[in-house]
Design a protein that fits this description.
Blueprint lengths: L4 H20 L5 E4 L2 E4 L2 H12 L5 E3 L21 E3 L2 H20 L9 H9 L10 H4 L2 H23 L2 H9 L2 H4 L9 E3 L9 E6 L7 E5 L5 E2 L1 H20 L1
Antiparallel strand pairs: 1-2, 3-4, 5-6, 6-7, 7-8
Helix pairs in contact: 1-2, 1-3, 2-3, 3-4, 4-9
Bound molecules: zinc ion.
């Protein structure tokens, strides 16, 4: 079994929180289990360390071991604040959502639970802490890199297929209306998107990404390009992170 986007989200969140805690309260990111030192889970870091250390405000000081002052009255733009506000409740809900999604997949049951834009924004907001910075920590993930590599190979394969088609056949395919060509039933909606490989409005998506239902998953009926769930999830995260950064600027 492989982890999908929610596994990536969990990993990014755990890494981010552990780095913040290690910077601010060295050693508290770890715990001892059967004589071994291990990194605490995201939910432990949120509830047992950050919440307790900040009196529930989630405001983690940027200076190591700086005292946490009550409600915190510091004003000003977010980058000049001496703390990073960790959305304890929002990130806790995101962790719970990833568990629901994973459990549903493991047991083959359906769930409407998805990671939302708010969850991803709460994750991206950790970036203002000096222990992290510039969002690379979210994307630096081996699963992520592998996704990109396998999509590159798929794009190349679809290119080769497309180039092997004769021009008349390409014209015939491009001229079709895929929202009716690919229609199955009224309760099975089809989204047709522009194909990133051949540019035709022919990427027939019978599903959408599992994170925010923004990007279609399916096949291009002109060039055969296949966009996987994982690639769609990655595109969604990248788009949301970009949007978050634009909003902060
Ligand atoms: Zn295509």
């Amino acid at each position: 079994m492989t982890d999908g986007a929610e596994g990536t989200f969990d990993q990014a969140l755990t890494n981010g929180l552990a780095a913040i805690v290690a910077h601010t309260w060295p050693g508290e990111e770890m715990k001892t289990v059967k004589g071994k030192r291990v990194v605490r889970s995201a939910s432990e870091l949120l509830k047992q360390v950050i919440s307790e250390r900040t009196n529930g405000t989630g405001r983690v000081p940027h200076a190591p071991d700086a005292p946490v002052t009550g409600e915190g009255t510091v004003q000003g733009p977010s980058d000049s604040r001496p703390y990073t506000e960790v959305d304890i409740e929002g990130l806790g809900a995101a962790v719970a959502a990833t568990q629901v999604i994973r459990h549903a997949r493991d047991t083959g049951t359906d769930t409407d639970t998805v990671l939302t834009e708010e969850h991803l924004v709460a994750l991206a907001a950790l970036d203002s802490h000096p222990a992290l910075g510039s969002l690379h920590w979210v994307q630096v993930d081996r699963e992520w890199d592998r996704t990109e590599i396998s999509d590159d190979a798929e794009i190349e394969r679809a290119h080769r297929y497309y180039n092997a088609l004769d021009e008349a056949e390409i014209e015939r395919r491009v001229a079709l209306d895929y929202s009716s060509e690919a229609f199955i039933a009224p309760d099975e909606p089809v989204h047709v998107e522009q194909c990133p490989v051949c540019g035709a409005d022919a990427l027939v998506a019978h599903g959408v990404d599992s994170m925010a239902a923004m990007v279609g998953v399916g096949h291009c009926w002109v060039c055969s390009y296949e966009r996987s769930m994982r690639v769609a999830d990655q595109m969604t995260v990248n788009a949301l992170i970009e949007r978050t950064m634009e909003r902060d600027n």
